[in-house]
Design a protein that fits this description.
- The structure is a single chain.
- The chain is of the alpha+beta class.
- 43% of the residues lie in helices and 11% in strands.
- Strand 3 and strand 4 form a beta hairpin.
- Helix 3 packs parallel to helix 8, helix 4 packs parallel to helix 10 and helix 5 packs parallel to helix 11.
- It starts with 6 loop residues before the first strand and ends with a helix.
Length: 361
């Protein structure tokens, strides 16, 4: 997902009129009926959507085809509810034909669905470096869940089995069975054995069988929150919650677990982890204190959710090291090696989380 404030290169009008600049402005003017932009800057930091900043006012995105067109209808339906509860989220623009996304090739752009939304103020960060940010993040995630408590929205776009632990486990087993000769086969099999040892310390069935389903963000990593640029010594505020494509009706512990995985490990996803258990305790405590809608069962699963998510990701990346079909990877590292590094890192993070939890009991 893109970091809205991480801008890498501007597209300015020139004598030759860059085709991308022309196409984006045709989309803005002809497609959405908005004033032409003087410049566009490509936003970096995301694997999924191609994102451009138009004059610091608009965000123009080519939506990845992994998201169905209905995802924008879901966002448009839920954004007013979030905004009414004080959650700072971007507003989608309607095209001249009343749609939230239109075909880019009709305006000289690469084929795909393009949308425009308002740009929020604030800066994104790649890592959390102090307790004040942890508190602000936990409070905002709790507020996000609380704002949508009881909302009966039926999602047009769904991503089935995203956190189906046993499905991912079977997929890894199938990959090991069918790709025995893969150069990473022996290593991935050893990783799978270590994963099964970690699995014994996590109440997988209790988590998977959670009864309360509510609307969650779906990808609450650190870069999907924007922070105010002015921070007092012991206080900071969040000015935006972005990348709402992953919203879904699911278990709140998945959001909390993924959030802590991102907020409390300053290392990249493919690097040896450094789990900050102090940050994790603060995040969990602040989230529970700020949440006013969770039932007893939901609260009982929160402590185990970070290790669950880390283990699930380790399985998914381990499978991809053999199948090499994940949509994002570093070509300089290579598909299989990059996924293998991610699998090692997520398994190591899971082990660190479980060790920290054991020390605290």
């Amino acid at each position: 997902m893109p970091m809205i404030t991480d801008l890498v290169g501007a597209l300015m009008p020139s004598e030759s009129e860059d085709p991308l600049f022309v196409g984006l402005n045709r989309l803005v003017v002809e497609g959405f009926g908005l004033p032409a932009c003087r410049r566009f800057e490509k936003c970096s930091g995301g694997l999924i959507n191609d994102t451009y900043d138009g004059d610091g006012i608009w965000i123009v995105q080519r939506v990845n085809p992994i998201f169905g067109a209905g995802v924008n209808d879901d966002i448009a339906a839920l954004v007013p509810l979030l905004q009414s509860k004080g959650i700072p989220v971007p507003q989608l623009c309607r095209s001249k034909t009343g749609q939230y996304a239109i075909e880019g090739k009709d305006y000289g752009l690469a084929a795909g669905n393009y949308r425009i939304m308002t740009k929020l103020t604030g800066v994104a960060h790649a890592r959390v470096d102090d307790i004040a940010k942890i508190r602000a993040l936990a409070q905002m995630l709790a507020a996000f869940h609380t704002a949508l408590d009881g909302v009966s929205h039926r999602f047009v776009h769904t991503r089935p089995a995203v956190h189906d632990f046993y499905r991912h486990k079977r997929a890894l087993a199938d990959a090991l069975a069918t790709k025995r000769e893969h150069r990473y086969g022996t290593e991935i099999e050893a990783l799978r054995d270590a994963m099964e040892r970690c699995e014994k310390s996590i109440p997988i069935d209790d988590i998977c069988n959670g009864r309360t389903r509510r609307i969650i963000h779906g990808d609450p990593k650190i870069s999907n929150f924007l922070f105010s640029e002015v921070k007092e010594i012991e206080y900071c505020s969040i000015t935006g919650v972005i990348d709402l494509d992953t919203m879904a009706r699911s278990l709140v512990c998945y959001d909390v677990g993924d959030a802590i995985r991102s907020w409390c490990n300053p290392r990249k996803e493919d690097e040896e982890p450094e789990y900050n258990s102090e940050f994790a305790r603060e995040a969990l405590g602040e989230y529970e204190e700020s949440s006013h809608c969770l039932d007893r069962e939901e609260r009982s699963m929160l402590a185990f959710s970070p290790a669950y998510i880390a283990l699930e990701l380790a399985m998914r990346f381990a499978r991809d090291a053999l199948c090499e079909d994940y949509f994002g990877f570093d070509p300089e590292i290579g598909h299989a090696e990059h996924s293998a590094r991610r699998a090692r890192a997520m398994l190591g993070l899971c082990a660190q989380m479980l060790a920290a939890q054991t020390r605290e009991i």
